[in-house]
């Protein structure tokens, strides 16, 4: 196992964000497709979509059950909304998968799969088909994690973002040794051929190649409903900007953590909402870009 690197300003200087010109258009900043939502959990997609926009993604499309599609567009006018066939329970129907694979994969640059998806056998079929066939870098979050097959080699980069309970399910119920998280995360990423973002008080990011990063920043303000959806949207928004997947994961975790610290100082740790995190992302990105700017640095991120 490679030595664990702490996520901080010095590390981020080695993986700079794209240096956009003043005439950069939305098409240059990428297009992310967020697939999720349900009649019972419509807000998760909104949070993920707003986070993707606030982190600088050019265009965000949301694919949701048709019964909540209009509400999505009204809540966030900047979105393009794609209504999907749905089950009687208001979840994504199995036949929606082929529609998305046929119509959206060539026009988008990254995918976020999972926020707001509810439990349903038909929906699980759709998620499994999407996980097997999406040819784009994809963030896999929330309920979609339960359909992920770690034994199958993905056809494009996958970033898995579980918390402790979801990680236990990914490991077939095997309890995680909390005293050996680095080795557990490293082994899982290698076996699953996916980038792992193991969320917790300290978040670990591990790659299939054996690189592992530890984020110690953040605050308890992050322990709020919708915080995970926000993180998924941040990482997806970065992925869409053609940022290397492991770089998008590392930066995404740090952006999220610093948003938590900022909200704690400005609002307070108790009663903070995920929307508070999202609203502070542009200012945080401006500051972190200044702090990590290296003159004459190459625009392309080096691979680990």
Describe this structure in words.
With 304 residues, this protein is α/β, with parallel strands linked by helices. 39% of the residues lie in helices and 13% in strands. The protein contains eleven helices and ten strands. Strands 1-10-9-8-7-6-5-2-3-4 form a ten-stranded mixed β-sheet, sandwiched between helices. Helix 2 links the parallel strand 2 and strand 3. The longest helix has 22 residues. The protein starts with a strand and ends in a 12-residue tail after the last helix. The C terminus is likely disordered.
Labels describing this entry:
13% strand; ten-stranded mixed beta sheet; disordered C terminus; alpha/beta
